[in-house]
Amino acid sequence: MNKIEEIRNKIKEAKNIVFFGGAGVSTESGIKDFRSKDGLYNIMSKYGVPYEVMLSHSFFIKNVELFYDFYKSTMVTSSAKPNAAHYALVEYEKKHHNLTIITQNIDSLHEICGSKNVIELHGSISRNYCMDCHEFYGIDEIMRQNGVPHCLKCNGIIKPDVVLYEEALNEEDMYNAYIACLNADVMIVGGTSLNVYPAANYVKNYNGDCLIIINKEKTPFDEKANYVLYGNICDILPKILDE
Fold it and tell me: Which of the residues are catalytic?
C-alpha cells in the first residue's frame, strides 16, 4: 500500500476532519502571497512604505487614503476563481459533512466555491463594515466608490473586515478553530509554511495520529506530521480526498 492509499484509508475512517489552509491554496488561483521569495513583502513598495507596514491598523487609521489605494489595487482579487483544491474540499464536504476548513486566507474562495463550514481566521475582503454605525457592506460597494468608501447611512469610513497587523483575531473564530482541531481525527495542513502565529498554534492543538502536511517546501512541523507530501496542493489534495 502506498502513502496516498494509506492516507485515503485514514480519511475514510475519520469522523471529524480539519483542513488548515494557507496562502499556497490561494496562489494556485493567481493570488499573490506575502512571504515567499516573490511574495508581496519582498517586492519594493511603490508607496515608499513597505507593504507589510501598510497592512497595519495604525497605518490604516493615519493614512486611510493611501491604504485604500493599495488595498483596492493589490489586495482585492475579485477576478480570482476557486481551484482544484477548493473543489476537492467542497465535494468531500457534500458527501461526508464532517469537514471543518480553517483558512488564513481572506479571499473567501472556499465560500464562493460552496464550502459551508469555514473559519476565516484573518477575516474576508467580502465583508466590510462602517466604523461608526457598523452597517455591513459587500466588496462591490467598496469597489464602486472612488477612494475611501463611506457608509451610505451615516457617511462613516468603511473598514474591511480583515485582521490587520496590531489587531487581534476574532475570539469566537479562535475558539471554534481550537475545538475543531482538538476533536479532529485527521488534520490536513495545506499550502502554508506554518510560520505565522498565532494561526500555526492550531496545529499544536491537534492530538490525533494522522497529521498530513502538503506543501512545496519544508515546514517546522514536518517532524510532528504522520505524513508529509511535497508538491502542489491542487495536484495532491484531490488525490487523497478521492474515494
Answer: 122
